[in-house]
Write a structure and sequence with these properties.
Layout lengths: L3 H8 L2 E10 L6 E9 L2 E5 L3 H31 L19 H16 L5 E6 L5 H14 L4 E5 H9 L10 H10 L2 E5 L8 H12 L5 E6 L3 H8 L1 H7 L3 E6 L14
Parallel strand pairs: 4-7, 4-8, 5-6, 6-7
Antiparallel strand pairs: 1-2, 2-3
Helix pairs in contact: 3-4, 7-9, 8-9
Bound molecules: adenosine-5'-diphosphate, magnesium ion and zinc ion.
Length: about 260
């Protein structure tokens, strides 16, 4: 027969009492050290609840931040279209070779500092002077500040849009256009470099029109008149909204070691 009294006694086998009090060295909270006996097993409760809660809160915040960082990185990595060579570009390794280029670097850095004040930049000038280099650097630093950014070479974008998006790709055309529309900063590199077909102009319109009122950086080798011809009036007028022109002229950096300068 089961001994009911003994069983009841066992379930009641619980005691607790404060054996010590001290102040938490981190937060100053008074902590009661409690000795618990549960079913004959001794437990000591001596943790600071305030600090435990704070620690948990910190961990949750960090986990959230990590999630945001990986979201930013993923967006950038998945949707950017950028040549390998440019990836090493930073403000630090951009060494202006004349006054105009030094000014361009300053404007680019200032742009990052005040981001995300609604404003756009357009780097205009010769080939090989660092237009892509500086706009890529902006893209990277803006991301480090916690914003999302995508760097797109326009000729590559048009090639990509022309090739049919098939099921094997990581994203659809619609997803790409949505990403370009919603990103905090969009760099459209080398705009106006393509032969202006109606198709290209209307595809560009989808992107540029979705970026009105947002932060955009353009680079181009074309002057205003050429650019109007290349992208069409509608695109041009939208691109020019709230934009600062940054002239960049100088020798092609890629040829700097070449004999033709001697
Ligand atoms: N002033 C500079 N200092 C360091 N590297 C430069 C400088 N100007 C250009 N470059 C490098 O030269 C190459 C061409 O520059 P890029 O930014 O592509 O020129 P752009 O877009 O104006 O045609 C890139 O590899 C870039 O990093
Ligand atoms: Mg370029
Ligand atoms: Zn504490």
């Amino acid at each position: 027969m089961r001994d009911l009294t003994k069983e009841m006694n066992n379930t009641m086998n619980f005691s607790s009492h404060v054996i010590k009090e001290y102040k938490c060295c981190k937060c100053g909270q008074l902590i009661k050290v409690i000795r618990l006996v549960i079913n004959g097993k001794v437990r000591i409760a001596n943790r600071c609840k305030v600090c435990d809660d704070r620690e948990l809160e910190k961990e949750a915040l960090q986990a959230y931040k990590n999630l945001q960082i990986s979201k930013r990185e993923r967006l950038f990595n998945e949707f950017s279209l950028i040549s390998e060579g440019l990836k090493k570009s930073t403000f630090e390794n951009y060494h202006p070779t004349n006054k105009e280029l030094a000014e361009a670097k300053k404007i680019a850095k200032d742009y990052v500092d005040v981001f995300n004040e609604y404003k756009g930049l357009m780097f205009v000038g010769d080939y090989g002077v660092g237009k892509s280099h500086l706009s890529y650097s902006i893209c990277k630093e803006v991301r480090e500040k916690g914003f999302t950014s995508i760097f797109i070479s326009v000729p590559e974008l048009l090639t990509k849009l022309k090739s049919t998006f098939n099921n094997t790709g990581i994203y659809t055309e619609e997803e790409l256009l949505i990403a370009l529309k919603n990103v905090d900063l969009l760099v459209l590199d080398d705009i106006g470099a393509d032969y202006p077909t109606e198709w290209a102009i209307s595809k560009l319109f989808e992107v540029i029109n979705s970026r009105v009122g947002k932060n955009n950086v353009y680079t181009t080798n074309s002057n205003a008149k050429e650019l109007i011809n290349k992208v069409g009036k509608r695109n041009f007028s939208r691109m020019m909204e709230n934009i600062q022109l940054v002239k960049m002229n100088g020798n092609d950096f890629r040829l700097k070691n070449s004999k033709i300068w001697n």
